Amino acid sequence: MNLMMLLEMAASGFGERVAVQSDKASLTYSELFAAAGAAAAEISKSGCERMAVLDVSSLAVPIGLFASAWAGVPFVPLNYRLTGVELEGLVTQIAPSYLVTDAERVEGLARLPDTTVAVREAFLEQATTGQAGEATWSMDPDDIAILLFTSGTTGAPKAAVLRHKHLVSYILGSVEFGSASAEEAALVSVPPYHVAGIAVIASSVYAGRRIVQLPKFTPEGWLDSARSERVTNAFLVPTMLARIVDTAADTGGVALPQLRALSYGGGKMPQAVIEKAMKLFPATDFTQAYGLTETSSTITLLGPEEHREAAASDDPKIRRRLISVGRALPSVELQIRDEEGNILGPDERGEICVRGEQVSGEYLGRGASLDRDGWFLTRDGGWMDAEGYVFVEGRVDDVIVRGGENMSPGEIEDVLLEHDAVADAAVVGIPDEQWGEAVAAVVVTQTGRSVSEQELQAWVKNRLRSSRTPQRIEFRDELPYNELGKLLRRKVRSELIGDTS
Amino acid sequence: MAQLKTGSRLRSAVCTTEAMVIAAPGGDVEVTCGGVPMIDVAEQPPEGLSISPDAAKGTALGKRYVSEAGDLELLCTKPGEGSLGVGGALLTLKEAKPLPSSD
């Protein structure tokens, strides 16, 4: 198995279709195939052991991804938001490498040892005019396809290892070859260093769906591109969708009649945002995807029909599915387990565990962390209802242990968010002499609204056990998120602890 | 006859068909294309063989083919004129159950 097999099939099945488009430049599947071959020859010539791209979404990303697969070296998309010192650390770690980046960064990186640096434009020129070697690549399923440095909200970045067998299995298990019609186009606004930014390339190529790259996300730019490029499909992280919904509301609504399908994932979607979005784009199919870097992207889906059914239902058990992440893919098994590893029943809280061909669970230099039966313990906490709908409640490591009782911040946050004066909420555990940990919350109020600490405490106490009532609630103008909308809970916690000292 | 492994690739001895194994039963299995045993993708086909008229409906790129028991599944990675088969019976086209696009 090799990712190149997917591109070779696309080039042979619908080679004249446009595969990817970036501003005015574009490549057909045949051209992308040829470019991957020419770039692979260059990469092999450099003697490197890894190929890295430090760039926004550009043509260098799909070419680099497939060229690496052809040349038989891991592809490493690097986060262009990291600082110089952090980047130097990562580049040193992946040396000897062939690294493609933009003109501004070349000088700083070229002096690093064992690093061949190419400017994006020169790389593209060589790829689109150069000669490919023979069209043969390793079909060893255990070869490494991608190294993805995870976002590091919990400490130093580590590289997740995705092998060709994981990514190819994911695509074969979730996408039908050539299933996109000729006019379909996917707008890609997630950065290439995010697993969704890689998965979308592989799945679009296999489906035959044109990729439209949006290098820098703004809600206005996204709406403009969606309109002018007649975009039919898009993936967004929740914060992006929230900003699009706000912008559209400010401008008196927008019409995107071509937009057939919007999928979202990569963080918790507030129920209010998805309800607004469904009203704003009534003709659009909404799909929620839940997955992790270590699982080659999506492992559960909440499909369009399930969205509509939940939104229209008066039954709270069905309506709450809107905040579930849906059910496991047919090719993935999912269980909820307790701390001792026992499998839990419906509605019982525990850790989400998955197994399947697409699941890697491996970090560079640390080996695979699957258990002996092949299950990956995600460290995401949650529960599953009797129909198999999965509800994610945040990281297990964020669980608050108060006097021996385990409680999940997500459950308390959901209750706080139900209060109509609350716009956003984060719940964390803070050290407490009597209980070990105490529940604390930071709340952002809706514009023009206020609410007292006592009122919110009573609100939580009336809905949950009194032990889950935050003993301290502070108000802030905003909560700290990373650029992809992931709540930086450690930062919330350290700020609160700092306040008490 | 050989043990089939998920991910291994076969080519037809009588046409341009190539296929990848998606699922395989345990034990020795002889997969045919055009009525003639398939070979490893790296091997050269022996000369003088031709497609059996009973197995000449062809394969289509990107389609999946399954045995009646459902334990053998192949993905066509290169199309050709022969039909895939196992144990004397032709494989049938597996109907796609499309999932909504999630990325």
Overview of the structural elements:
The complex is a heterodimer of chains A (501) and B (103). The longest helix of chain A has 18 residues, at 29-46. Chain A is of the alpha/beta class. The radius of gyration of chain A is 23 Å and the shape is globular. In chain A, the strands form six sheets. In chain A, strands 2-1-10-9-11-12-13-14-15 form a nine-stranded mixed beta sheet, sandwiched between helices. Chain A has a four-stranded parallel beta sheet with strand order 4-3-5-6, with helices on both faces. Chain A is built from 16 helices and 26 strands. In chain A, strand 5 (97-101), helix 5 and strand 6 (115-119) form a beta-alpha-beta unit. Chain B has 103 residues and is mostly beta strands. Chain B has strands at 2-3, 9-11, 18-23, 28-29, 31-33, 36-37, 39-40, 64-66, 73-78, 84-86, 89-90, 92-93. In chain B, the strands form three sheets. Chain B has a six-stranded antiparallel beta sheet with strand order 7-2-3-9-8-12, with no helix packed on it. At the A-B interface, helix 1, helix 7, helix 8, strand 13 and strand 14 of A face strand 9 of B.
What keywords describe this structure?
A: 501 residues, alpha/beta, Rossmann fold, Luciferase, domain 3, GMP Synthetase, Chain A, domain 3, B: mainly beta, six-stranded antiparallel beta sheet, four-stranded antiparallel beta sheet, 12 strands, 0% helix
Summarize it:
The complex is a heterodimer of chains A (501) and B (103). Chain A is of the alpha/beta class and 501 residues long. In chain A, helix 9 crosses helix 10 (238-250) and helix 10 (238-250) crosses helix 11 (271-280).
What is the topological layout?
The complex is a heterodimer of chains A (501) and B (103).
Chain A: H1 3-14, E1 18-22, E2 25-28, H2 29-46, E3 50-54, H3 60-71, E4 75-77, H4 84-94, E5 97-101, H5 103-110, E6 115-119, H6 120-129, E7 144-149, E8 159-163, H7 164-174, E9 185-188, H8 195-207, E10 210-213, H9 219-228, E11 233-236, H10 238-250, E12 261-264, H11 271-280, E13 285-292, E14 297-302, H12 304-312, H13 316-319, E15 327-328, E16 333-337, E17 350-355, E18 362-363, E19 367-368, E20 376-384, E21 390-395, E22 400-402, E23 405-407, H14 409-418, E24 422-432, E25 436-445, H15 453-463, E26 472-475, H16 489-500
Parallel strand pairs in A: 1-10, 3-4, 3-5, 5-6, 9-10, 9-11, 11-12, 12-13, 25-26
Antiparallel strand pairs in A: 1-2, 7-8, 8-18, 13-14, 14-15, 16-17, 17-20, 18-19, 20-21, 22-23, 24-25
Chain B: E1 2-3, E2 9-11, E3 18-23, E4 28-29, E5 31-33, E6 36-37, E7 39-40, E8 64-66, E9 73-78, E10 84-86, E11 89-90, E12 92-93
Antiparallel strand pairs in B: 1-4, 2-3, 2-7, 3-9, 5-6, 5-10, 8-9, 8-12, 10-11
